[in-house]
Amino acid sequence: PAGRKLSYAQTRRLELLPAEIAALESEITLLERKLAAATGIDASVRVVLTRVTKALLILVAFLVALPMVGIDLTTLSVFGGALGVGLGFGMQKIAANYVSGFIILIDRSLRIGNLISVGAERGIVKEITTRYTVIRAPSGIESIVPNEVLVGSVVQNETFSDSKVALPLLFQVSYDADLERAMAILIEVAAAQPRVLQDPEPKAFLTGFGDNGINLRLGCWIADPQEGTLAITSDINLEVWRRFKLAGIGIPYPQREVRVLAPLPAISVVQSALPPD
């Protein structure tokens, strides 16, 4: 009520409140360090435990501090209910993102370091918060994706249970080329790359006959897709081009064959004489 004075005990508690808040912050910081140093706990689980514990400690401190300064918690129940209804309607998206964030952190469907694709975004998961996830693309651009999108969409996780991914490369050789030699060169070049796995081993396939040449496909596997595929693709292509030149295997280019046909014989048109009038 207006004009109400605080007692000496309440005043003393109010004076001690900053020191208690500082002690609580120190405890929270210590807890975060202990969880961060725990080696037997997954990184996502550590994030969940840290944030949940921090939120609970702050809530408990808030509930304990209010009676200390003479505020009755029962008087806040009606206001809290009305405020909760208003926030429920106005912050549905935010609440959905927070709930989705806890789901992602708890079920460990996404982890920091995973290479994922969602929608038009593809990159490495750099950070998972309770509201959004940061994805860093190979170009260096970081995208902030709401957690609700990750929970409600199909996410391709290339490193979820196994980091091995296939790297298919397409080539074309001329029709007069030595196919066995060309396919052997493809396998040798892939096997010589340090990033290409030997199990499963690289293989070459004849996939079809094109308009300008014979289509070949090189299939190999890598275990570090998060490092990107542009560099290794370029290295393989460059070495294949060099080896094909040394072996005399031609890489065709678009060409057209034009045939000139003999001229058609002249067609004589015979006009019948018109009958006399």
What does this structure look like?
By secondary structure, the protein is of the alpha+beta class. It has a domain at 165-247: Alpha-Beta Plaits, CATH 3.30.70. It has helices at 8-37, 43-68, 76-90, 92-107, 147-152, 179-191, 230-247, and strands at residues 115-118, 121-128, 132-136, 142-146, 156-157, 165-173, 203-209, 214-222. The protein is elongated, with a radius of gyration of 36 Å. The N and C termini lie far apart (129 Å).
Keywords:
Alpha-Beta Plaits, 8 strands, single chain, 45% helix, three-stranded antiparallel β-sheet, 7 helices, 277 residues
Rg from alpha-carbon coordinates: 36 Å
Order of helices and strands: HHHHEEEEHEEHEEH
The CATH class of the domain at 165-247 is identified as Alpha Beta
User: How many β-strands, per DSSP?
Assistant: 8
Residue windows where pLDDT falls under 50 for at least 5 positions:
none
Helix content: 40-55%
CATH second-level architecture of the domain at 165-247? 2-Layer Sandwich
Question: What structural category arises from helix and sheet content?
Answer: alpha+beta
Please specify the SSE layout and strand pairing.
Elements (H helix, E strand, L loop, with lengths): L7 H30 L5 H26 L7 H15 L1 H16 L7 E4 L2 E8 L3 E5 L5 E5 H6 L3 E2 L7 E9 L5 H13 L11 E7 L4 E9 L7 H18 L30
